[in-house]
């Protein structure tokens, strides 16, 4: 599937999650869990509204978490939009969706497609800035991040995006894998199987090693803690839960200690900034 926003893509994400919830005994369902202190309410899929920041006040439910790269501000890359003590009331009243960075808007699209009303994004759900109030809130909420990712219905990993302004729902290159369903005869029965077609020079199943997210320190923790992880790579999607880990092309996803630790070491050797 070339388009990351296509109905086919949405069906693919939905099936990964439903199979995990229904078939995997080791995977928590995370459908009715204590919600984080703050969340972005994006409305229902039938009645979407401008996002707004809410205080969960002990509510339970399900939510999506986002793992992504903030990026470095520059003349072409403005600072991330954040919640601060100064604009907290304004953010609670509503945020014009068009004003949000592309990566955040893409995460909202995925959440609505999966019919999940709440989404947790660190820059918006934890107070930012140098003030004592913001520092105190950051210390409190950062200590709860393990619960945030462990309890999330699914974590979205924006692997192909090096900035919050870059987005992650890009059309994949024409050489991206294509799924073809076939039935093979085994003894008396036909069994459905999937095969993927692509170009031989493209390294499918490469564990997203070329994607920016593997060089950010926080995302290592976020992947390690997440119950379910849906990865948006440059060439293909990826999936990881407590019982399965694979690329869209069908290749297995490498264990976390091999892939991520090696990439973090390489980033340090290259003097790459790790946030």
Question: Overview of this structure, please?
Answer:
With 275 residues, the chain is of the alpha/beta class. It has one domain. It is built from 8 helices and 12 strands. It has an 8-stranded mixed β-sheet, with helices on both faces. The chain has a two-stranded antiparallel ribbon with strand order 1-4. Residues 199-207 and 271-275 have low confidence and may be disordered.
Write the layout of secondary structure elements.
Blueprint: H1 7-23, E1 33-34, E2 38-43, E3 48-55, E4 60-61, E5 63-67, H2 88-93, H3 102-113, E6 118-120, H4 122-125, H5 132-142, H6 145-151, E7 154-157, E8 178-186, E9 189-197, H7 217-225, E10 229-232, E11 237-240, E12 245-247, H8 256-269
Parallel strand pairs: 5-6, 5-7, 7-10
Antiparallel strand pairs: 1-4, 2-3, 2-6, 8-9, 10-11, 11-12
Helix pairs in contact: 6-7, 7-8
Quick recap:
Helices cover 29% and strands 21% of the residues. It has 275 residues and is an alpha/beta fold.
For the record, the count of structural domains works out to 1
Structural class: alpha/beta
Main sheet overview = 8 strands, mixed
Uncertain runs are 199-207, 271-275
Q: Write down the overall geometry.
A: globular
Tell me how many strands there are.
12
Strand order of the largest sheet: 3-2-6-5-7-10-11-12
Provide the residue-averaged pLDDT. Answer: 81
């Amino acid at each position: 599937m070339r388009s990351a926003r296509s109905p086919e893509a949405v069906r693919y994400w939905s099936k990964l999650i439903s199979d995990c919830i229904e078939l995997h005994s080791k995977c928590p369902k995370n459908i009715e869990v204590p919600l984080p202190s703050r969340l972005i309410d994006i409305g229902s899929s039938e009645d979407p509204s401008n996002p707004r920041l809410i205080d969960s006040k002990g509510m339970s439910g399900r939510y999506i978490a986002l793992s992504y790269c903030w990026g470095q501000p520059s003349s072409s890359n403005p600072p991330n939009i954040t919640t601060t003590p100064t604009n907290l009331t304004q953010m609670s009243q509503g945020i014009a969706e068009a004003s949000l960075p592309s990566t955040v808007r893409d995460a909202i699209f995925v959440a609505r497609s999966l019919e999940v009303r709440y989404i947790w994004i660190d820059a918006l759900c934890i107070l930012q800035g140098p003030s004592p109030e913001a520092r105190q809130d950051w210390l409190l909420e950062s200590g709860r991040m393990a619960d945030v990712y462990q309890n999330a219905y699914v974590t979205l990993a924006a692997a192909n995006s090096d900035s919050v302004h870059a987005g992650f729902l890009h059309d994949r290159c024409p050489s991206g894998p294509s799924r073809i369903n076939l039935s093979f005869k085994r003894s008396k029965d036909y069994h459905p199987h999937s095969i993927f077609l692509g170009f031989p020079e493209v390294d499918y199943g490469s564990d997203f090693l070329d994607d920016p997210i593997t060089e950010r320190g926080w995302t290592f923790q976020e992947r390690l803690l997440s119950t379910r992880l849906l990865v948006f790579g440059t060439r293909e999607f990826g999936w990881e839960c407590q019982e399965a880990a694979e690329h869209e092309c069908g290749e297995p996803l490498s264990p976390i200690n091999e892939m991520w630790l090696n990439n973090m070491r390489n980033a340090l050797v290259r003097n790459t900034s790790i946030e």
